Predict the 3D structure of the following.
Amino acid sequence: MTTLTTWLRDPNPASRLQARLGQGYLGWLRFRRNPLAMIGFLIVALLLLMAAFAPLVATHDPITQNLGQRLLPPLTAGHLLGTDEFGRDIFSRIVFGARVTLYIVGLVAITAPVFGLLIGTVAGYFGGWVDQVLMRITDIFLAFPKLILALALVAVLGPGIENAVLAIALTSWPPYARVARAETLTVRNADYIAAVRLQGAGAGRIIWGYVMPMCLPSVIIRVTLDMAGVILTAAGLGFLGLGVQPPMAEWGLMISSGRKFLFEQWWVATMPGLAIFIVSLGFNLLGDGLRDVLDPRSAGK
């Protein structure tokens, strides 16, 4: 172990692989020194594990109804967090709802940032009328509140998890385009870009191979910090009945069905609300920690 640590921390790496692994190891050490970031990392890691092993973690079937045990309080008859109006175990529904949440978060995270990164780097690299057109389109999307625009898109496309993901992705890309454009403007006139251009590289190769990698750290940070907003938007669509449809377990849908019992059977809506709060907090703390590690301006602080 000591030999591996010494190899990773070698100031004169012998290969590109060693340099990258060493950089990642030093970044992990900086990340680990931030206790709040570690809390966020543990929350997200537990969410991933809970979603991956949901059938093993859940104590009951999340869909099966038992009207004889409806609206039981927490820690009653083997129900850790109580039951809902149909006698379904709330803990099990929260566990399986984590799968739906991660499904939405994952699809948005691999669509909206990629599209925004492409738009931002192209606009920043070419400038001129290309920049003006692409950024004005971005401004049009930014002019509308994200949730309102998502509601409008889902109303047109129809309710359902796929349409909810598409609507959230279409409303989430503009901030990534802005970040990528700003990063591109700072590097497009750099000496190494000029050197690559003199070697005969085209605009596509320069953007893909040299500009986009420089924008990735800022985009990754933004993605992590935006995940809480994506979760809240997905829960809002589910709350309004425009996202995941019954009987699937989804946190926003669970809050919607439990709001009529809020004063007498508070746990029906409170438990999924706490799940949204904890997971959103975890992503925010994780994003703050990644920003401290990946942002070169804060790496030396």
